From TrEMBL:
<dbReference type="GO" id="GO:0006614">
    <property type="term" value="P:SRP-dependent cotranslational protein targeting to membrane"/>
</dbReference>
<dbReference type="InterPro" id="IPR027417">
    <property type="entry name" value="P-loop_NTPase"/>
</dbReference>
<keyword id="KW-0342">GTP-binding</keyword>
<dbReference type="InterPro" id="IPR004390">
    <property type="entry name" value="SR_rcpt_FtsY"/>
</dbReference>
<protein>
    <recommendedName>
        <fullName>Signal recognition particle receptor FtsY</fullName>
        <ecNumber>3.6.5.4</ecNumber>
    </recommendedName>
</protein>
<feature type="domain" description="Signal recognition particle SRP54 helical bundle">
    <location>
        <begin position="35"/>
        <end position="116"/>
    </location>
</feature>
<feature type="region of interest" description="Disordered">
    <location>
        <begin position="1"/>
        <end position="27"/>
    </location>
</feature>
<dbReference type="Pfam" id="PF00448">
    <property type="entry name" value="SRP54"/>
</dbReference>
<comment type="similarity">
    <text>Belongs to the GTP-binding SRP family. FtsY subfamily.</text>
</comment>
<feature type="domain" description="AAA+ ATPase">
    <location>
        <begin position="129"/>
        <end position="330"/>
    </location>
</feature>
<dbReference type="InterPro" id="IPR003593">
    <property type="entry name" value="AAA+_ATPase"/>
</dbReference>
<dbReference type="Pfam" id="PF02881">
    <property type="entry name" value="SRP54_N"/>
</dbReference>
<comment type="function">
    <text>Involved in targeting and insertion of nascent membrane proteins into the cytoplasmic membrane. Acts as a receptor for the complex formed by the signal recognition particle (SRP) and the ribosome-nascent chain (RNC). Interaction with SRP-RNC leads to the transfer of the RNC complex to the Sec translocase for insertion into the membrane, the hydrolysis of GTP by both Ffh and FtsY, and the dissociation of the SRP-FtsY complex into the individual components.</text>
</comment>
<feature type="binding site">
    <location>
        <begin position="137"/>
        <end position="144"/>
    </location>
    <ligand>
        <name>GTP</name>
    </ligand>
</feature>
<dbReference type="GO" id="GO:0003924">
    <property type="term" value="F:GTPase activity"/>
</dbReference>
<keyword id="KW-0547">Nucleotide-binding</keyword>
<keyword id="KW-1003">Cell membrane</keyword>
Length: 331
């Protein structure tokens, strides 16, 4: 079976040595284990309630679906998404004759995975580098930290990377990114605090072209004097990127703090409308029982979660995988 990710695939016809097969298997086990650990609090909240509500169900009826609806809402899947899921389950229960709580639970897993898979897409790097990725989001979500972790991730994929410190508004944002630059060994292009972020972006893109760098990660401001000012600045940076690099920005990652739940979803709506978001990076997934927000984002915004943060270490950033996430929620 081909291993498919958001950033490419390993084809079946690419032969691998036995030691490579074993290494891939261990990597897969480790990944699923880390994802399962990341959603522990959500799983404990969700599965305990599901087991209590459905363990003695002999025939699925409307009261079971009502109980299930209330349980999904507590996981912060959201009213709109929950209503959609329950509607699908109701139809399938009638059509397929579901007669047990375990069968209903399996259908629920299928429906959640289907919602997540519908928005996933494989991203191919541009034929002519650099690939420009804008990191956007409000202050406090972990945007700068995530930029540093992503830089380390791309470096580990043997893709040369450059950081751009374009958050010139927040005090110490540039210094924070410099720390991550030192940790990851990824160079950073910066300007002074209070300087023009678009100028920093111009310098970074110029440097990336001269150095033939493959990826440029741009840490943008999370707050200006007004929301209108923030969005205007992001729009200006998009225009500069487009003029300097064909097709740029190639991706716009919105960083959301998972612990904010539905408030994070409101942030996502604002940035999606104004900044052309292509994917979500969900931080602090390990610190919340509201991991269901992943499903709400996929259903309501039609956006994939591309990475999730699960800790403070350099490698505590996982590529999102729908199968691992769903199994982590229920297993």
């Amino acid at each position: 079976m081909a291993i498919q990710t958001l950033f490419g695939s390993l084809k079946d016809d690419e032969p691998r040595k036995p030691e490579q097969e074993e290494e891939a298997l261990e990597t897969s086990r480790g990944f699923f284990g880390r994802m399962k650990q990341a959603v522990t609090r959500t799983r404990e909240n969700l599965s305990a309630q599901l087991d209590q509500a459905l363990s003695f169900t002999r025939t699925v009826d409307e009261s079971d679906l009502e109980d299930l609806e209330a349980i999904l809402l507590t996981a912060d899947i959201g009213l709109s998404t929950t209503t959609e899921i329950i509607g699908r389950l109701r139809e399938r229960a009638k059509r397929e004759g579901i007669e047990s709580g375990s069968a209903l639970k399996n259908l629920l897993k299928q429906e959640i995975k289907s919602i997540l898979d519908d928005v996933q897409r494989v991203v191919r790097p541009p034929s002519t580098p650099p690939e420009v990725i804008l990191m956007v989001g409000v202050n406090g979500t972990g945007k700068t930290t995530t930029s540093g972790k992503l830089a380390a991730f791309f470096q580990s994929q043997n893709r040369s990377t450059l950081l751009c410190a374009a958050d010139t508004f927040r005090a110490a944002a540039i210094e924070q990114l410099e720390v991550w630059s030192q940790r990851s060994g990824v160079p950073v292009i910066k300007t002074r605090q209070g300087g023009d972020p678009s100028a920093a972006l111009f310098d970074a893109l110029d440097a990336a072209k001269k150095r033939e760098t493959q990826v440029v990660l741009v840490d943008t401001a999370g707050r200006l004097h007004t929301k209108a000012g923030l969005m205007a600045e992001l729009d200006k940076m998009r225009r500069i990127a487009q003029k300097f690099v064909a097709g740029a920005p190639h991706q716009v990652f919105l960083v959301i703090d998972a612990t904010t739940g539905q408030n994070g979803l409101q942030q996502a709506r604002l940035f999606t409308e104004s900044a052309g978001v292509t994917g979500i990076v969900l931080t602090k997934l390990d610190g919340t029982a509201k991991g269901g927000i992943v499903v709400a984002i996929a259903h309501e915004l039609k956006l994939p979660v591309v990475f999730c943060g699960i800790g403070e270490k350099m490698d505590d950033l996982l590529q999102f995988d729908s199968a691992a996430f769903v199994e982590g929620l229920f297993n």
